[in-house]
Amino acid sequence: MGVSEDIAPWLVREIIGGSGRFADPFAEPNGYSIVEAEDEAALLAARGRYLDRLRYAVANADALVAGAFRREFYDFYGVDRARACSPEEMCRGLVFDSFVLDARDGSVGACLTNSRFLFGHFIECWWDGDWRLRSAYIC
Description:
By secondary structure, this protein is α+β, with helices and mostly antiparallel strands. It is 31% helix and 24% strand.
């Protein structure tokens, strides 16, 4: 893995505002970061792209989550069905617990979770540089 950097939590909080779809950037561990930068110059160039992608994700969070969600995720053994009574409710309750930019190709990875009904588990998603979903799986 190349040079990695966590994005300043105060900057993330400024962008996500009061969005209930994103975890608090001051919570541990901080999952807001850039990975795979070859050197400091690549990392510096990726910061602006990261912030742009985060702004896009905040503005389009519901659509991104809905596009990544699969009804069969509700059948996963780790889902507390007493707290997420339907696949639709589970989808509505998912939160971006991390937001990672791959500096090499501009792809974005995120873990979607909700400690109320998916404690200790998450849905890992990857979108390409044009926001096309590459993969989504639950673990």
